[in-house]
Amino acid sequence: MHKTIDEYGKVEEKETALVEKEEKSPSMKQKLTASFIRVDGKDAKLAMAHMYVAFIALLLGGLAGLLQVLVRSGEFTLPLGIKIGYYQVLTVHGILLALILTTFFIMGFQIASISRTAGAFTNVQRKIGWTGFWLMLVGTAAAAAMVLLNKATVLYTFYAPLKAHWIFYLGLALVVVGSWLLCIMQILKYYRWKKENKGQTSPLLTYMAVVNSILWITCSLGVAVEVLFQLLPWSLGLVERVDILLSRTLFWYFGHALVYFWLLPAYMAWYVVVPKVIGGHIFSDALARLSFILFLLFSFPVGIHHQLTEPGIEGFWKFVQVVLTFFVVIPSLMTAFSLFATFEMRGRELGGKGVLGWFKNLPWGDARFLVPFIGMVAFIPGGAGGIVNASYQMNQLVHNTIWVTGHFHLTVATAVALTFFGVAFWLIPHLTGRTLTPKLNYLGNVSGILWGIGMLIMSLSMHLAGLLGAPRRSEYSTYGGAEMAYDWIPYQIAQAVGGTILFIAILVIMYIVVQLIWFAPKGEEEFPVATVAPGAEKTPAILENFKIWGVILVALIVFAYTMPIIDIISNSPAGSKGFMPW
Amino acid sequence: MHIHKYEKWWLVFGCATLVAFLVILAIGAFHNGTHPNEGKITVDYENVDSIKPFDNPGVHKVEGKEWDYEVVLVASAFSYNPNEIEVPLGSVVKFYATTRDVIHGFEIAQTNINMMLEPGYVSEYVAEMNKAGEYLIVCNEYCGTGHTYMYGTLKVVDENAQNN
Question: Which residue ranges run through the membrane (chain B) (predicted)?
Answer without folding.
Answer: 9-30
